[in-house]
Design goal:
The protein is built from 11 helices and 8 strands. The chain has 291 residues and is α+β, with helices and mostly antiparallel strands. The protein is elongated. It has helices spanning 3-7, 10-37, 42-71, 75-78, 86-98, 111-128, 144-157, 166-186, 234-247, 270-273, 276-282; strands spanning 83-84, 102-106, 132-139, 191-198, 204-208, 212-217, 224-228, 249-251. The chain crosses the membrane at residues 15-38, 50-73. Keywords: Membrane, Transmembrane, Transmembrane helix.
């Protein structure tokens, strides 16, 4: 990876700069300590000269790297701008939500969304006093076969594979629905939530705004792809979201525009309703992708 590629990642940029400054500080401190405490022998003089050269070359390399990064464009790195490292995904999603006037997400259970992103959207709507459109597509918890397929996938390939079962999938989806109902009822006139339940499975999550979309994977170790509205691939994922909504079951909002207050207005299956207490307790759980 080129230097500009490394410095395009906020996480790697912090590591690079922190390590560089530590090495320079230690070397400068060593030079002064040798000058003050060490006897004037050839060995100490050689070590002092070595540390001085490290400081000089390190400072020059650091300044040159920053100069090349911010004042020149590497054509080979242009394509990498849409790639986001796993360590930067959370920050990128938070940035998008913090500036959003609308938000769309296609996800299976929505654990990270309800824990970290939905509160940001609520805060953004309240602070800006601007109506926000939120479209959420979740896995259809009424379809046991689809929930079983997804649970099997997570059991065989997920970092938290021990958790997954049909009931766990349904509980997590239910918890996200409860969080959406609460946000909808507490922010009437500020947040308009459209809720869809889909049977379409995917290993990708698509979320973002009308200006920028992030496509992430099921595992937090995977990189993400960022597509701004000006990118040629943006329209493909935006259209994909529209197609998924067209085939999904839409939860009808009430007359005031909010989601139904009772889960029984959305789901009638007693096997799912019995999971509501457990889903309510899951609302307090942090995002599973916190590192």
């Amino acid at each position: 990876m080129t230097l500009s590629g490394v410095l395009s990642s906020p996480f790697q940029k912090r590591i690079f700069l922190f390590t560089s400054f530590v090495v320079l500080a230690v070397s400068v401190g060593g030079v002064f300590l040798i000058a003050i405490l060490a006897p004037p022998t050839p060995i100490w003089s050689a070590l002092s000269n070595l540390l001085i050269s490290v400081v000089a070359s390190g400072a020059f390399a650091l300044m040159s790297g920053l100069y090349l990064t911010y004042l020149f464009v590497d054509p080979n790195d242009l394509a990498a701008r849409s790639s986001i490292l796993p360590q930067d995904i959370g920050t990128a999603l938070e940035r998008i939500a913090s500036n959003a006037t609308d938000y769309r997400i296609f996800v299976r259970t929505g654990r990270h969304f309800r824990s970290d992103i939905l509160p940001i959207l609520v805060r953004q709507a309240r602070q800006s006093r601007r109506r926000m459109q939120v479209r959420v597509i979740l896995l259809d918890l009424r379809n046991a076969a689809v929930c079983e397929r997804y649970a099997n996938f997570r059991r065989t390939s997920s970092f938290d594979h021990k958790l997954w079962s049909v009931d766990h999938v349904r509980t997590e989806v239910l918890a996200t629905i409860l969080a959406l109902i609460q946000a909808s009822r507490e922010n009437l006139g500020l947040i308009d939530i459209e809720l869809f339940l889909t049977t379409r499975l995917s290993t990708f999550r698509i979320e973002g705004t009308a200006d920028e979309l992030l496509v992430t994977r099921e595992d937090p170790k995977d990189t993400a792809m960022r597509f701004r509205r000006s990118d040629s691939d943006y329209s493909a994922f935006s259209t994909e979201l529209d197609w998924i909504c067209a085939d999904a079951f839409r939860v009808e909002n009430q007359g005031d525009g909010s989601l139904p207050t009772a889960i029984t207005s959305i789901v009638y299956d007693k096997e799912i309703i019995r999971l509501e207490p457990k889903a309510k307790s899951s609302l307090a759980n942090p995002s599973p992708y916190v590192r």
